[in-house]
Amino acid sequence: MSHLFDEYLLRCFEEYNPCETDGQKVCNIDDLCSAKCRDIKSCKDCLSDIFNNPAHRMREYNCIPITYSYVIRYTNQHASEIYHILNGNEDLLNAIDGKYITSIGCGPATELIGIEKYFRDINRDVHFKYFGFDKNPIWSSCHHNIESVFSDNKCRININFENSILHGDNPILKNTKLLILNYVVSHVYKHSKVCPTETKKFLSSLNPIIHKMPQFSSILINDTNSRYMGRDQIEQWGDELSAQFRDMTLGKGYFDYPNRDQYIKFKSGSHRMRTNDIIFNNCSRFHRFTENVNECRSAFLFITKE
User: Fold this and answer.
1) Residue 158 dihedral angles phi and psi, to the nearest 5°
2) Predicted model pTM
3) H helix and E strand count, the chain
4) pLDDT tens digit sequence for 49-65
5) pLDDT digits (tens, 9 = 90+) for 255-290
6) Which member of 21, 198, 294, 296 has the greatest number of CB atoms within 10 A?
7) What CATH class does 81-305 carry?
């Protein structure tokens, strides 16, 4: 069986059709699109603007080409981070079997690729249901592709996507053993008019969701390792939650990488991951998408209900 990673990216690659250019306007959907997407045959310039250009701070993912470009560019990195974080967590892996994994703001569900790869590598035939919640319907084409890939390969993972917000009264929470937020908080931070305040409010909205989850369940927040993208608010929220509730234990970690700045760590108690290697080999045809994305760089917070 070929890697699901390869098949997922290949399907998105084959369907990728960059924006037409008319010499003046690049995209008839997004006025902020100024990159010559068809000329460079990827949307990586637009993705860079979304993440790094202050003028594009409120920009959303609002066209299918950019979602496919996101999958091809970042799945290896984001899935690898999830893979390394879960590696060796036997208690959690045993708890997941027959239960649910729920993802808030799932986007293209890159965490599924890392989770499936890990179970396959340790030769564990684990069955669980995955629920991915994202209020932006633009990801539906990516969802269709990853569902088809998992189904065609007869994976024992039941995938469900919801174009909605997960609320604390949702009945799936009583069977959710792992709740994931993978590059969600940074998105909230970037789109907030009052970044720290609104980000804290979003994180506090997770509290009733966590309280509905069963004993021995876990919450993983994996995100951009930057004090300018919500990382410090994640740490403050986690510290307050673990201090308030004695049945919750808190762990923090980060991936080290060359030329990092001095603020790469959480303020207290974080550990450095032993490796920052990406775990899949990118096909050469993807190089124009994946340039300079070649290592794990995130910071993460792990909470366990005991």
Assistant:
1) -90, 115
2) 0.94
3) 12, 8
4) 888 888 888 888 988 99
5) 998 777 767 778 888 899 999 999 998 888 899 999
6) 296
7) alpha beta
Q: What is the CA radius of gyration of the chain?
A: 19
Per-residue model confidence as pLDDT tens digits over 86-105? 997 877 877 888 999 999 99
Give the C-alpha separation, 35 to 37, whole Å: 5
Compute φ and ψ for 179, nearest 5 degrees. Answer: -110, 125
Burial class of 301 by CB neighbour count within 10 A (0 to 12, 13 to 18, 19+): buried
- 3-state class (DSSP) for residue 158: strand
Q: Phi/psi zone of residue 269: left (φ > 0), alpha (ψ -120 to 50 degrees), beta?
A: left
Would you call 37 helix, strand, or coil by DSSP?
Answer: helix
Q: How far apart are CA 300 and CA 290, in angstroms?
A: 23
Strands (DSSP E) found in 40-191 = 100-104, 128-133, 157-162, 176-182
Tokens of 294: 């070649």
Secondary structure (3-state) at 208: helix
Q: Which helix (H) or strand (E) holds 9?
A: helix 4-15
